[in-house]
Specification:
With about 200 residues, the protein is an all-alpha fold. The chain has helices spanning about 20-40, 45-50, 55-65, 65-90, 95-115, 115-125, 130-150, 160-180, 185-200. Residues about 1-5 and about 10-15 have low confidence and may be disordered.
Length: about 200
């Protein structure tokens, strides 16, 4: 089976001209498929162009560099993660236990759904300015979200920022351990929930 046959979505008709947004979505989908099948090391701009059956300049126009592509992939993941967490929080009951449970479950579920691709993307981007900017943006957004959601259950000053950063570190470590199979999904969810409950209770 050829590499192209693994990605039927990539083979759009040459007669159809995609809009820039449609082309970007196609390139991201093909990138995720390639990482899933062969790992992050296999993803280059040239290989992406080949898999998507387009010319290299089109890919370079969208991403500039391989690090640029990987940063956009991380951003794509985080946008979907944010939407799922927001929906889960909105649907949860107004209690600290419920809020902590949905934050923990949503975070772990999002990383597990993406499988080994996200750790691979993060590892490939380790130390790059592209990742630093994108990752920091979404870290701040997640911390501000948790600070707002947990404020009604915390002390007068809210949950300290140091505690929220510690919570985020635990969320990343637990989710990646679950992806690697070192712990199971339930263990990751439960431990993160208990971590969230602990930081809120300490703030009182």
């Amino acid at each position: 089976m050829s590499s192209h046959s693994r990605n039927p979505a990539a083979a759009d008709s040459p007669r159809r001209r995609l809009s820039r947004d449609e082309r970007l979505r196609q390139l991201l989908d093909v990138s995720w498929q390639l990482i899933r099948a062969e790992g992050t090391d296999a993803l280059t701009l040239g290989r992406l162009a080949e898999e998507a059956r387009i010319t290299k300049p089109v890919v370079y126009d969208h991403f500039g560099t391989r690090n640029g592509l990987l940063a956009v992939l991380y951003q794509d993941f985080d946008v979907r993660q944010t939407a799922l967490i927001d929906a889960a929080i909105a649907a949860s009951k107004p209690s600290l236990t419920d809020k902590a449970s949905v934050i923990a479950a949503s975070y772990i579920d999002c990383v597990l759904t993406q499988g080994r691709e996200i750790p691979g993307v993060l590892a490939a981007l380790d130390g790059s300015p592209e990742l630093a900017a994108v990752k920091r943006q979404y870290q701040y957004a997640f911390i501000e979200k948790c600070q707002r959601v947990l404020a009604p259950y915390a002390g007068p000053q809210g949950v300290p920022l140091a505690s929220l950063w510690a919570m985020l570190g635990a969320a990343d470590a637990l989710s990646h351990a679950a992806v690697a199979g070192d712990i199971n999904e339930t263990q990751a969810r439960d431990e993160l929930r208990e971590t969230i409950l602990a930081v809120v209770k300490r703030s009182k």
